[in-house]
Amino acid sequence: MIEFFQHSLRLHADPSRVVVRPFHLAWAGNGGNRTERLVAEVRAMSMTETRTQLEVVLKDFEARHWQTRRVFMTRYDEIEAQLGFDGSEIGDEKRQLIGAYFCHEYSYAAAALMNPSAVPHFDQSGMPPGSMRILMSLRAVGEGHISSVAFREGIITENNELKLAPEPPFATATDAIDLDEEEMPEGEITVYRHRDSTLSGTVIFPITKAQSKGLEDLRLVQFTHDDGSVEWLGTYTAYNGSMIQSELMRTRDFRAFDLVPMTGPAARNKGMALFPRKVNGQYMMIGRQDGENLFLLQSDTLLHWDEGEKLLTPKYPWELVQIGNCGPPIELDEGWLLLTHGVGAMRKYSIGAVLLDKVDPSKVIGRTREPILAAADQDREGYVPNVVYSCGALRHGSKLFVPYGVADSSVAFAFFDIANLLTALT
Predict the structure, then answer these.
(1) Whole-prediction pTM value?
(2) How confident is the model at residue 126 (pLDDT cuts 50, 70, 90)?
(3) What angle do CA 179, 215, 196 make, to 5 degrees?
(4) Residue 351: exposed, middle, or buried by beta-carbon count in 10 A (0-12, 13-18, 19+)?
(5) CA 235 → CA 185, 258, 262, 384, distances in Å?
(6) Fewer CB within 10 Å, N or C, the chain?
(7) Do residues 118 and 142 lie in contact, with contact meaning Cβ atoms separated by under 8 Å?
(8) Burial 30-53 (b: 16+ CB within 10 A, else e)
């Protein structure tokens, strides 16, 4: 295994990280009449009872969440619009209490924090030479094993330094506009970060039927279009409890996020990773279409993907069970550097590297005979033991910054010298 610098920082699951989310009665299989009954019950309360009940709610939750009263008022406005009644005579206290009945608290990272990806931050202002502001996505797993997307901002340096921006005391969930209270949405949807929330305190939750049980393993990439414009794109797995679907997250400002289902045979599989630009006039992805091998996919559009051609098969003992990608290919002068994961005996996961031809990525120039990263003794225990896994590394000068999940339980960080990596390819 080649030498690398292991940073001491670790991120762990944290049950104290909670957000307030809308509670949709109808989405849980209950009809709109229940919504009407709840609203009627609160409207019929005396003001004394209303204040008493609101005080209980605020005592329990106001110190745990950001702008709790405003969240309740916003939720009330949504319910009023859905039911179509005139609530002009309802005072703020009743509005807040009604809103509270249609919200719930969710601990989004109580079970696990894992499978990060990293990209250059959209704001590089004020960075001294040798430093880069970065943005990481993280898979956060909470109650019911439901996965969501969390973010952390930070700075890396050419001296293997990493400093993460502090998480704000309160996290906020992205939200969509004009959701139907009666039926969970389907298809493409846009969600928005709260105007006053930092990105490190923002969480994207499942919102459509296809996503209802999780948004898994976002592989972010800073994508440069033919006209030179930059967009941050991320492929992820939408899971509804029985079926998976690959989808694409699109954003130019990390304020609005388009969550768009992809079509085609390849989109029915996990682990798709997008090249950071077109190659030979085509969009390209690395995918695992049969659960065992890696494929090179090409398309005229970002949203439809056919099967593609087989690119790599398991070869070495540490990857004989199956191989997959560990994020989007990274462009070097020498070619496309692709991190892979391999599964070996006892289903132990390790990370390796492959170099693809820069002009024709279907040509494999070399691959590592041994893993570049595997679970050390102290890293083997966790929610899923013996696993190291990344959804995307980042080039910074002569170094490769690799955030990675450990045992599906925590997130660790490593810096590799790119020249050493290339030397290890055979």
Answers:
(1) 0.91
(2) very high
(3) 60
(4) buried
(5) 20, 12, 9, 23
(6) C
(7) no
(8) eeeeebeeebeebeebeeeebeeb
